[in-house]
Amino acid sequence: MASWRDIILSEFQPQIARLTLVADPDDLLLEEGIFEEMRARGFDLIPFDDNVAFRYIYESKFRSRWDNGEETGSMAVLRLTSNELDLLPYDLLQAGRRVSISLADIFPNLSYPVVATLDFIYLDALFQAQDKFSPGRLGDNVTKSFILRYVFEIIPEFIKEPKDLLLVLLRRHYLGMRIPPIVDEYLIQFLQQNEMFKDWPLDIIVSDRQAFFAFLQERWPIFLNTLALKGNEVCEDPSRYGLRFSGPALLPFDHEEIRVYIDDLFLEGLLHPVPCREAQLPKEHWMKFGVTIDPEESYYRRIVGLMDSVEENLKDNMRHEMWLHFAYKWAELLALEFTSDFGLPDTCKERMDALKSKIDGMFQDWILKRYASLINLSPASPVMLHHIPRFLARNLAGDKRTKIALLLIDGLALDQWITLRNVLKELDSRLQFRESAVFAWIPTLTSVSRQAAFAGKPPMFFPTNIRTTDRESNLWAQFWAEQGLSTNDTAYIRGLGNEISNKHYEVLKQDRLRIAGLVVDKIDRIMHGMELGTAGMHNQIWQWTKQGFMRDLLSILIDNDFKVYITSDHGNIEAKGIGCPNEGVTAELRGERVRIYSDLSLRTKCKMSFPDSLEWPSIGLPEDYYALIAPSRAAFIRKDDVIVSHGGISIEEVIAPFIEVERA
Questions:
Q1: Which residue in 234, 215, 236 sits closest to 224, CA to CA?
Q2: InterPro entries attached here (predicted)?
């Protein structure tokens, strides 16, 4: 077959059965391409990880209508995450046909325990390699070698000297390759046999992206000094420079294959430039983004370089992983635009406006086509906000001593996280951030998206609460009760942003506490009072972070042995008024970026007055919850007025930070 997906999809032909019961221990039906094709063929996927939630969907949407002789227009697929279909209720076993799918069936000659650790995005390359090379039955280690060579294009035997290792790690970490830990262990053990790498911190820099870039960062000034000294007086002893990471002090940054990556690392904020006198560098130097000679010139260079990088990385048919990666490039560019003392030249302004328009259009088209496929993806690597609690639950289950704090900063956009992060690093250089991102719920409202983050479920499962956040703490407690934790094991604190009260401090110090949910609403309050646009948002976030609240809160959590994660329920954008609908009280929520109706005809009527607005399909929402979203960077306010708001589907509103915080 042309693809591994074809093997699975052959089991799902149109009109084959009303109900199909699938044993899917590897979550293959959740893969983006399979999910979309099944929807196109008329199959509706229902997970069975929550019996109550399953019954709600199955009984209301399918069985009751089948019993009344109605045609639903789609077929139900019940997905079980184990092979034990016989444990399902009798009525389902009687009504449905049974199917089992597994990676072991798709890759019969490769070690199943090893293949099962791979992310879905790498299965295409593995399937092609299997088809091309037809390997015989392979054991664990040979399977790991096969995956390294043909999936990640890493051939351990070719890594013989420092430049080879640096090239492999630069490519791996810059591209964000997610190599499974057991494959990393195999690679590290192989490299440790080479005497040339005996002093390198391989256990850290091979698998840890942030540690690798920190390793490069502290050696970058040493490399610049060698240029000024023309190679004289260079000491290879790392202790002389106070380096945190072991290994050689001098790295071959100027190797022709290595320096290809250096510009992009500095452009995207993965490495940070250091002050340097122009006389220290050759006239035709290639490390221009890694040094600060003239601050204004460095700013313009980086702005133009980031715009080039954004344009190069904006492609058709991007997968969700690519959008999440792209969002950080875009956030770095926005943060640079709005936090600098130097104004953008007119040519850059025109280019930025064109980029915003292009990104808005492409992102909206992608969201309309692919958003529904994100909801049921595996929480092993959270893709949407409601995946986060299940991801945290897996961490808690692994060690009974683990304590976790989820710190949700209401309304924090990804570009504003860049500003907040940079200030935090200035205040406490020991803080380290493992950065990723997740999709917020649409419409990007607090009552929808924030509650989903604490409920661990799509909004359709809390229809009575979706218009308020008053019962958010109950949803949080209910989720953890379902995971076997008592009320004494959990905490929920909201309204943070100015100081940590003694009461809150005492709660966080409790010995029994295992999981804490914290809401910082300061940025949301800043946003709703903002009159100076996005630049004003960045300025006030900078000032607020400088005051030290976030640093102090993180210190309290880390000092009390919490594993800390930061996220946001949605971002925000600067929007321009297109007029305010004159509809009295017909809209339940009269937001600036979105209007909410309980009656479909009322939404249709308002749409007629604003033809460019979007009637959002109620994906994962209650049946009586209809959203009308304002056009790109527009708001339902007085014409030409400017506001900072949220509720829509721009990349700034929808893609939120998800950060793991550590202290070095």
A1: 234
A2: Alkaline_phosphatase_core_sf
User: Is residue 85 situated within a structural domain?
Assistant: yes
Same domain for 359 and 444? no
How far apart are alpha carbons 649 and 630 in whole angstroms?
A: 9
* Side chain identity, residue 418: I
pLDDT the model gives residue 235: 53
The answer to whether 412 and 658 are in contact (CB under 8 A) is: no
The stretches of 96-201 forming alpha helices (DSSP H) are 103-106, 112-115, 123-133, 140-150, 162-174, 181-191
CB 123 within 8 A of CB 150: no
Which pLDDT score is estimated for 230?
62
Residues 330, 413: Cα–Cα separation, whole Å: 11
Tokens encoding 496: 């943070």
> Does one domain contain both 91 and 166?
no
Cβ–Cβ < 8 Å for 377, 383:
yes
289 and 159 within one domain: yes
> How far apart are the C-alpha atoms of 222 and 642, rounded to whole Å?
48
Q: Helix or strand or coil: residue 130?
A: helix
Nearest CA to 319 among 31, 593, 641?
Answer: 31
Does 553 share its domain with 436? yes
Same domain, 205 and 180: yes
Contact between residue 657 and residue 568 where contact means Cβ atoms under 8 Å apart: yes
Centre a 10 Å sphere on the Cβ of residue 129 and count the other Cβ atoms it contains.
17
In a domain, 327, yes or no: yes
Q: 371, 388, 423: which is the final residue of a domain?
A: 371
Tell me whether strands 573-577 and 642-645 are parallel, antiparallel or unpaired.
antiparallel
Instruction: Decide if 468 is inside a domain.
Output: yes
* Statement to judge: residues 12 and 65 lie in one domain: yes
Residues 423 and 346 in one domain: no
Record the tokens describing residue 321, joined without a space. 């992983």
Place of tokens 């042995």: 561
Q: What is the DSSP string of 348-413?
A: HHHHHHHHHHHHHHHHHHHHHHHGGGGTTS-TTS--BGGGHHHHHHHHHHH-TT-EEEEEEETT--
424: in domain:
yes
Give the model's pLDDT for residue 237.
57
Give the pairing of strands 515-520 and 291-292: unpaired
Residues 73, 213: one domain? Answer: no
**CB proximity list for 471: less than 8 A, separation 6 or greater:** 462, 465
- Spatial neighbors of 399 by CB under 8 A, at least 6 apart, are none
Number of alpha carbons in the 13 Å side-chain half-sphere of residue 310: 21
Tell me the per-residue pLDDT of 220-269, one tens digit each, with 9 for 90 and over.
998 888 877 665 555 555 566 778 899 998 999 989 899 889 888 988 88
- Burial readout 152-161 (b: 16 or more C-beta within 10 A, e: otherwise): bebebeebee
Low-confidence ranges of the chain (pLDDT < 70): 1, 50, 229-240, 277-285, 584-588
Give me the number of domains the chain comprises.
5
Compute the mean pLDDT over every residue in the chain, rounded to the nearest whole number: 90
CB 591 within 8 A of CB 445: yes
Residue 224 neighbours by CB under 8 Å, 6+ apart: 274, 276, 280, 281, 287, 290, 291
